[in-house]
Each structure stands twice: as structure tokens, then as C-alpha cells.
Specification:
With about 750 residues, the protein is mainly β. Among the domains are: about 90 residues, Sandwich (Immunoglobulin-like); about 100 residues, Cadherins (Immunoglobulin-like, Sandwich), CATH 2.60.40; about 110 residues, Cadherins (Immunoglobulin-like); about 100 residues, Sandwich (Immunoglobulin-like), CATH 2.60.40; about 100 residues, Immunoglobulin-like (Sandwich). It contains 5 helices and 41 strands. Strands 34, 36, 39, 40 and 41 form a 5-stranded mixed sheet that branches. A 4-stranded antiparallel sheet has the order 1-2-5-4, with no helix packed on it. The chain has a 4-stranded mixed sheet with strand order 8-14-13-10, with no helix packed on it. A hairpin with a 5-residue loop joins β4 and β5. The termini are far apart.
Length: about 750
Amino acid sequence: MNLSTLASTGLSLHFIIQLHSDVDKGDGKVKYVLSGEGATSIFTIDENTGDIHATKRLDREAQAYYTLQAQAVDRLTNLPVEPKSEFVVKVQDINDNEPKFPDGPYLAGVPEMSPLGTMVVQVVATDADDPTYGNSARVVYSIEHGHPYFSVEPKTGVIRTALPNMDRETRDQYVLVIQAKDMVGQMGGLSGTTSVTVTLTDVNDNPPRFAHKNYQYTVLESLLVQSVVARIKAADADIGSNAEMDYRIMDGDGPGMFNITTDEDTQEGVIMLLKPLDFETKSSFSLRIEATNRNIDSNFLSLGPFSDTTSVKVTVEDVNEPPVFSIPLSKMVVSEDAKVGTSIGRVSAHDPDNSNSPIRYSIDRNTDLERFFNVDALSGVISTAKPLDREANSVHNLTIFAIESHDPTQIGKGITLITVLDVNDNAPVFAIDYETLLCENAIPGQVIQTISAVDKDEPLSGHRFYFALAGPAAGNLNFTLRDNKDNTASILTKRGGFRRREQPVYRLPVLIVDSGSPALSSTNTLSVRVCDCDSDGVALSCGAVAYTATGLSTGALLAILGCIITLLVMVLLIVTMRRRRKEPLILEEERDIRENIVRYDDEGGGEEDTEAFDMVTLRNLNVIRDPNVRRDVTPDTPTFFHYPSASRPSYKSLPDNVVFREFIWERLKDADVDPSAPPYDSLQTYAFEGSGSVAESLSSLESLSTDSDQNYDYLSNWGPRFKKLADLYGNSDSTTVLS
């Protein structure tokens, strides 16, 4: 089979090749069959003529080669008349793809002040066309936007600086447009573009500069140490590490007063106060400060110097300061036997301001709660106000206030430590409460106890105690004392044969004397108990031995038992008599009617309710007593008012307090002469309301017994609610009401 031709890309049904078999005589007995890549879908064959056509536009970039098989077969039997023939269809390239930048857009940086021709970045464009066929894939580069600052090499795409010494502080960013064109840039070629953003990176090409040559700041003299006095900054057009700088104080008239450091966040110079300010001592300070770049680039030394200086004046403003003690912590001593009012020492303070205000002193009583001390308000002399006791408090820590007279709000504080010196005012005593046991089998000269002493005083040379038996015990025949010369003493037996039955306990007075001046002493009693001990000297039992009750006859025991029974009977009788009901001191008929308690639940009938109380009797206290009441004993009872018995006034005519007293005296006499009263004291309670005000009682209870000229006829006009009152008071004839 012969291959007639090769085909290139073209339109639909584009003729590619013709196949012809030598067997084909043109009589229609042979037909052509096509198989392989793209057969029937892309390529078709005319079965009569063997012409192969492309039915679609071919894309070399998608597939550059197609392998096909063609065969001639008998039309009737479909049997091959020749073997298969294989052929390759190669798609020829045309310039149908523009150049592209796969890595675009680009970001690049170049140091500012770079020399001419410094490489910035290289751009690369690719073309999908066949580089082996024609110029379709041959690309050249050009810069469309970015002149005159940058240039690009046409063949390599390397971008370089086109101007020297570009300044970042003037312009820090440029956007370039780079074009790539195929066909070696000839007319008709395709092109693509990309952007390149070029940033100028900073270099240290700018020195720091202060905005002013002189700065002035004002601070209060009360400013605390380590506080910020001021902040200054030298401007630097650079950024980052190229703008970092250090500050220092070159000179000034306040050495050691100030320090300056760099704030790493703001690159400011922070002036700090190192010592307290005092307006009265120095009211202003002058400093000379230098700022220097930390990272200096040697390539740009010609643009220096990379430092600058300025002058700073700090003015101190006066404030009203509290008084200052000449000695903030003063120490004083006083003897604990100092008398009240003894001067101990003197504190002194002054006003640091120019006004020099007078000072008044006082003690912070929170530090002297028991007020042991006083301070003279004008002189500052501290004296004792109460007796001191070193053993209770050996050191007093006082806070002294110094107050300005012109401005009491200004208060200074000072500390005074007062140490109380010891005097010998405490006698020595036993160190502990000793429990001394003495075995009955003790031998003469045996040590039964070692004693020591304590003393609340603290002499400078230490304690030295002397021991001895006191008074009459010094010559006793039972015990002796030996002073060990080391602030202890030993108690020894003088004899043996101690017996609990004879004497279970011995009390030994011990005299202890200290070495103070004057020496003090005390007598302490040491109790020695006699004990029954085992062979090792361990006490088994101590104290008195109980005696057996011998020689007590049966009759004596019965007599003791009888006495006990008699006592029990007498106690029972007394208890029984005390439980008897007491008869009232005042007879029932003599009870004051005011002691009655009447309880009822209805609303009450007003003046008509006269059944429960005799209103006249309730008001009149001169109740007629029964003349037949026995008066065996008439006590001599004084009265507060003396008047003849015949002309004795009524209670109502007396003052309230006298009425009540006379009433109580009457009741007291009745109780004293009452033959039925018990032989012991009794309590009787009375309550008396009194006769009331000058206007007398306002109660309606008494209105029936008083003569009144009041006319109550108007009550009849008040309606049915007041009908009962109108019936009671409306009729002037009171006898009708009482009948």
C-alpha cells in the first residue's frame, strides 16, 4: 500500500493522505478500512478511494503524533487482500500560543543606594509552541512600565537597576510591567506580560538628628526616684535596625542625678531620676545628651557623622514638703525605775521649704497604746508618762509626728527606739514547782532534791543566786541545804528513819538571794513527802497512813447512828413547814378594789357599765377600815406630813407623791400588826395611778360623780350612732340616770 502524502493541521474534512492498494483495479471489489488513534473520531477514510480526512482542528500542544493502521479488504468477503500498513500522522506547529510567566507576578527587593546595573530579579516566560519548528517559541523580553529606573535584558529576562543611588526615603516601591513576545519579537508574534513589584530595602544612610538643639522640662521636687523625668527622640529616616540608637549624657551640672536609656519600642531617650530632688538645694539642671546609631554601615560613612547632640534643661518646681527629721531613726535608753516625767531624749525636725514653718511634735498613739511616753509639742523632748517595766516590754518602738504649724497637712514621721534598762526589782524564785519524795529508808547525807532559781531581771554580768534555809529551819534536825555555787543547791537528809505514820510531809523554807544591788530575796517552800520505796529507791506510795478504827464500842456506833437519824427528821420537818401555804397578809375584804381584774369580751357600755366598779370608791383612797380589826402592836411609823389627826386631810387634797407614800405606810402598818402574818419577811406589791393632772381625769368613768354644767343636748342631733350618749348626758337630771 502506498502513502500518497502527509497532512498538516487544517479545517474540518481537511485532506491528509490517500491510500492505494496495487490489488485495487478500480472495479469496486476492494474497500479501505482505517483503525488506530483517532480513527472514526478524528480521522475518516473513504472506503472506495482510500482518502483520509481530519474531521476536527488538531492541536499540536494537546497531541503531536497519531499512529494509524490502514488495510485493503475484499468488499464481499471482508478478507484482507493485503497486510495492514501503519503510518504516523505528525501535526505541524503554528504560532497559536502566547508566552506566559508561570511564576508571575513577581515580588523583589533591592537595597537603596545600589549602584547602576544591580540585579533585581530574573523573570522567565514559557511558550507552548514547538521550539524546534520556526520562531513560534523564541521569546524576547522588554520593559513596558518602569523606565527610567529599571531595565530588563531581552534574552535572559534579568531586571537591573537603571539609575544609581535610588533613595528609599524618597520612594520605596516601584511596579514594573515586563513583556515577553515570541517570534523573536517580530511583527505578528504573540506576547504576554507580568508585573514585578520592586521594594527598595533600607540601609543606614541617614544619621539621627534632634528636632531642637535645646529642650526644657519642669518636674516637681517631690518626684520619686526611678521616675521618668522626660522623653526625647532623635529623628532617623531609616527603619528597623538601621534606626536603632543609643543615648548618653555627655556632661551636666548634676552628676549622678539622672540617667538616660533607650526605649526599644519607640527609640526614645528616657531620662530617669536617680537621686531625690531638692528645690531648696538646686532648682535647675543642665544636661548635654548625645544620640548615636548602633549599626553604622561603613559604605555610607561619608554621609555621617551618625550621631547628634542636644541640650536639656530640667527645672525643679517647689512643693510644700513635710518636715524632715534630722535623725530618721533615733535610739534612746531609760531606766525602768525612772520616775514619771523623766526626760529621755529629744527629737528634732525642720521644714525643708523656704517658709521654714515652726514644727509641732506628737506621738503616734498606735505605737504607744498604753501611753508610756509623752513628747513636748514644741521642744520635741520625750519623757516618761507612766512607770515602766522592762520585764513586760524592754523596747518601745515609737513613731513621732512632726507637723508644720502653717500647714497641718504636712506631716513628717520619725522612728524612736527606746530601750528600757534593767534594774533589780524582781526577787528570785524556784525555777519550777518541785515535787520532792523522801524514801523511808533514806540514809543521812543523802541528796533528795537539787533546786535552782529564776529571776525576771537580766543583769549585765549574769545571775548569781545564793541559797540557804530560812529562819528557824536553819537548825532543824531533819534536813540541810548545800549551796553548789553554780546557781543550784542540794537538799540533804541529816538523819535516817523517816516514817510516814509519824509525819508524812515536811515543809522546808528556802531563802534565795540574788546578786543585784540592792540584793533581793524570797522565801520559797519546798514540800518533802515521805514515801514507801522499793529496794531501788522507787516510790511506791506516799502521804499519810490510814489508821485502823480500834476501841470503838457497839454502843458508840449506835449513838452516832441515832444522831444522824435525828438530824434527818429535823430537816424533813423544816422542809414540810416551808411548804405550807401562806395566809394572805391582808384580809379579802380589805383588798383595794383596784386589784380586781375584770375581763369581758363585749364592746362595753360606756357610762352605763357601773356594775363591776364603784367609781367613787376607786377614786377615793380613804377607805373606811373595819374598827374591829385587831391592833395588838402599833408600830411607831413616821409620816412625811405632820398634821392633827382630827384635821387629817383626804388623799385627794394631797400631792400625788405624798398620796402614794401615805398609802404605802397604811399598808405597812396593817401588815405589821396582822396576827396572821408569817414570822418571815414578805413582799407586797402596789401600783397607784395618782390623782392625774390639774385638769383632773378626762375619763368618762368619773363623769357620773362630778358636778358639771356642760350641756350635752346637742348629742341628740348627731344621729342614731350617738343616741346612747344622748340618753346618758342629754338629760340634766342626773338622778334619773342613776335610778
